[in-house]
Amino acid sequence: MSGIAAAALTVGDGAIFEPNSPRVVRQEIPLRRWPERLEGFTIAVLSDFHYDRYFSIHPLEAAIGMVNGLKPDLIALAGDFVSMPLVLGDDEHAASLAEPCSRLLARMNAAEGLWAVLGNHDFNTDAHRVTHALEAQGITVLANRSVAISRQGERFWLAGVNDVLSRTADLGQTIRGIPENEAVVLLAHEPDYADKVARYPVDLQLSGHSHGGQVRLPLLPPLFLPDMAKKYFLGLYQIGSLTLYTNAGLGTVGLPVRLNCPPEITLITIRHLAR
């Protein structure tokens, strides 16, 4: 195969096939404070939808049936439902795309519901409108607050902070009042926030933001990583007693291209780790 033909195939895969073909990544995560009766609880994690009617809509539409087929106990949406204009543009129009995005997301089902935090693109367009669009479809946005998820007489806490880059995240307020012996799962859009989270009684952080690098050349680091996603940009990490998982996202920003970094649905199964 000639070099030109190989390059054409690579470009075609990165622009046509890979961005539209989500994969399921399965992770089993043991947590010491996880309730024994909730052994095997599953969370489907999706992030970085960056909804538009031409490109990112396709992996999102593909993901709906895949997620429902997994039958997760809970669905966590880790932010960036829309995209802020790249240079000068209409923030109002950008934020309005949260409405069709939310309608699609609401087609996914989980026994314990759909929960979300906002990302930097959501805050930089219109956080109020994005929040309203999600909650109108029954998707609860956790804005510096936590809720108890109860089952079989046991519970854990699902917490969510505002976007970190907006400087409105308040982790202390978010987890205030949670009993010290109860497990906490935190949704935080930016993964590098984990260095702060690790100083608090949080067991698991779920993040997005990085797109996994979006374009990955073999044997090289990602060509671009955004602020607050340069350290923990993809996959599973352990920071002290905190476990972090960074999802590669579904959509794209800038060029609608992914290379060696397909859209991701993460299915996390949480295990009770005996003391």
Structural commentary:
By secondary structure, the chain is α/β, with parallel strands linked by helices. It has a single domain (3-272), classed as Metallo-dependent phosphatases (Purple Acid Phosphatase, chain A, domain 2, 4-Layer Sandwich), CATH 3.60.21.10. Helices cover 25% and strands 24% of the residues. The chain has 7 helices and 12 strands. The chain has helices at 3-17, 57-70, 91-96, 98-105, 120-136, 171-175, 194-197; strands at 23-31, 41-46, 74-77, 114-116, 140-141, 145-151, 154-160, 184-187, 204-207, 235-239, 242-246, 264-272. It has a 6-stranded mixed β-sheet, with helices on one face. Strands 6-7-8-9-11-10 form a 6-stranded mixed β-sheet. Helix 4 crosses helix 5. The termini are far apart. Mean pLDDT is 93; it is low at 1-15.
